[in-house]
Amino acid sequence: MRTASPSDDSLGRGAEVSVSVGIFLVIGLVVDNSLGTRPIFTIALSVFSLLGSFVRMWYVYDGNMQIQEAKRQNLSTSHIQKSDSK
Length: 86
Description:
This protein is mainly alpha-helical and 86 residues long.
């Protein structure tokens, strides 16, 4: 039986990035149309959203890797701790 996958899977991250860029793109278009500065805010907010998404993905990845490294270290030293207690 297959269980639900966690929300931090690749497909979910891709959808999250595309939706956030789309939202910031629309906000940039609205601001540009209201101020008469056509591409400035559209480009700036889209780049801001992309950078923010990639920074967020990096921190999530880094946190997951630190957890995995701690698990691996605990597994590699678990036999030493068991033999010391005997």
